[in-house]
C-alpha cells in the first residue's frame, strides 16, 4: 500500500515558518530585521488548524494558528492562511541564525574597488625552503606576509573599509572631549556670566536683552528708521520727531506687549473702554507711546540697508535680500565675539512663517519661497547653529536660492552648510550634532579637519557608509546596537558607524565618544493587558542607550526647542501681522534675540519664573528704559565709556540706588497677612530710635517702612527683618533719622 505524505502544516505540534511581515506589523519587522524585513522567515509551532466553508461559494478556507518565536523570549500567536505557512525541513531547524548575529561575509553593494565585497587582505605565505642556500647563486625573493589584523572587514564602501571590532567601539574615538560650559561677556571688561553665576540677579532682564541684541544692529536701525522718518517729513506737511535709541527699545517692548493680548484690530489696544465686562481695556496709552507714533515707527521699521535703486549688474533677487542681510551679519558677528558655547553645538533649521508673495517666478516679495510638510508650512528657511547646553542661537544662514545646492566643490550641500555654521569655533574640539541633512561620512571627515567632532543620523547620504551591513543585522530588543570602525593610517579608529534600535532603527556616524553603556532612556507608558476588560496599567519602559547616542539626543533638539519658544510662547510672528516679507524675517530674528535673552537669564539666575512672566517683565523694562539718560557700556570686551561712580550702586547687591550718601530708603518688601502677600502694602518695622525712647514703657513707639541706607548696605542678611534699621520719616514730624545719624554715623 503506497504511503501518503502528511502535510506538516496541518499537524498540531509540527514546526512551521512564515514571513515576519505576515506575523507582525511591518514597522516591528523593520525594527527587528532592517532591510531583510520583507524576506525574513520566523519559525513557530502549530497550535491548531481550522477549516471553514463559505456557504455562498462552497469553497473551504484553512487557517493555521501557530506561536512564532522572535527570539529574546518574545513570542506571538498568529492565525494565517495555510498558503502563507510553510513546513520546516529538519536541516532548516538547525540553521536558524541567532538574533543580532553578524553576517559571516562582508557585503559590498557600494563597493567600487572590490565589487564582490570579499576580504582582499589575503597574505602570501613563503614556502619552507625559500631561504636555503642556492648553489647557482640566484636569490629568490618572496613577498613578506603582512601582519594579520583580527578585525575583519565587513563592508567596503567606495574604497572606505569598515571593520568589526567591539573592543574598539568601547574606546573613545579620537580621544576624550573636555567638558566646558557656556558663558557670555558682560559690559564689564573681562567679566563673563555662565550657568548659576547671577543668582543674586545683579543684571536686569533688559540687561540680558542688550547682551543678546547686537549693539551695531541697534545703531543701524536707529539711523535707518530716522532716515525713513525724515523722508516722510519731506513728503507730508506733518513734522514727526526723530527717534532715539531708547524709543526704539520702547518700541520693542510694545511689540512684546502686543503678544499678551487677543485683538483683531491693532488700534483697539490703545482703547480705554473695555469691550467686555470681565476683560479690562488694554490701555496701551499708558506706555507713553501713542498709537500714531507706534504706527509711524512700524511703517519706518528697517533692519538692513538697501539703496534706493538697484545697482547695475546686481540680480533682482540679491537686491531684495539686502533688506535683511545686515541684520544676519551683525547677529553672526555679535554671537561669535560675545557668546562662548559649551561642549556641544547643534545645527538645524528654523522657519520664518510667510504666506504672502514670493518665489523665484516673480520679482516681488520673499525671494526664495520654501514649502514644507510641517508647521509652519511655508516661509523663509534659516539654517542655524546653536549651543547644545543653553539653546542659544549662535549663527544664521538664510536659504536664498536653489543655485547654492548646485555648487560643485566636491562636497554635498549639507557638508558645505555645516562647515559654514560652525566656522567661528574651528580648532576648539567641540562636538557638532546634526540631523540627516548634514550627516554623512564626508561631513565627519571635513569637520575633523577643522578641529571639530561630529555625531549625526544618516538616512539618504549613505555614500562611504556601511548601510548595507548594518541594515542586515537582526536586533531583537529595544536598546540593541552594533558598530563598525574605520581605521586611520596608523591603524587607530578615527570614525565609527553604528545602528541603535528603539521604536525604529537609527543609523549614526561619529568621530567621537564610544558605545559604552550610558544612562538608560526611561519613559512611562499606558499598557493594556491581555484582559481587554481590565483597566490599563502604567508601565515604566527602560531602554539601554550607548554614551554617544545620549550626547546626540541631549543636543539635537536645542534649535527645535528655541523655535517652539519663539513660535508658541513669544508669538510675535502670529500676533504682529505684516505685508512686508522683510519685516517678517526681521521680527523673526528679533524674536530669536528675545528668546536667547530668556535662555541666558534662566541659566544664569536659576529663576523659577515662567517664560511668559519673563516676557511680560521684559516688556515693562523695555518700555520704561532709561537708555537715553546715561552712558551705556557695550559687551565688546573693553569699556568704551566711563563707569558710573560706585556710590550710585548698592555695595551688597550691585543694584542701582535712588540717592547718594546717607538717606532714608523705602523697603521693597511687601506685607504678608496669613500667608497672602499684600501687593499694595509695604512691610513695616519698629523704629529703633522710638524703641530706645520708650524702652521699659508699655508703649513701644512707632513703626516705619523706611530704612537707613548705610545700615542697609552693611547688613549681611538682606532678607531678615530683624537685621534692618527702621527709622521714622521726617514727614511725620519726628527727627528719628537725624538722631540716628548723630549717634551712629557722625564720624
Automatic annotation (TrEMBL):
Residues 207-598 form the PiggyBac transposable element-derived protein domain. Residues 88-131, 633-652 are annotated as: Disordered. It comes from the Eukaryota. InterPro entries: PGBD. Residues 103-120 have a biased composition (Low complexity). This is Transposase IS4.
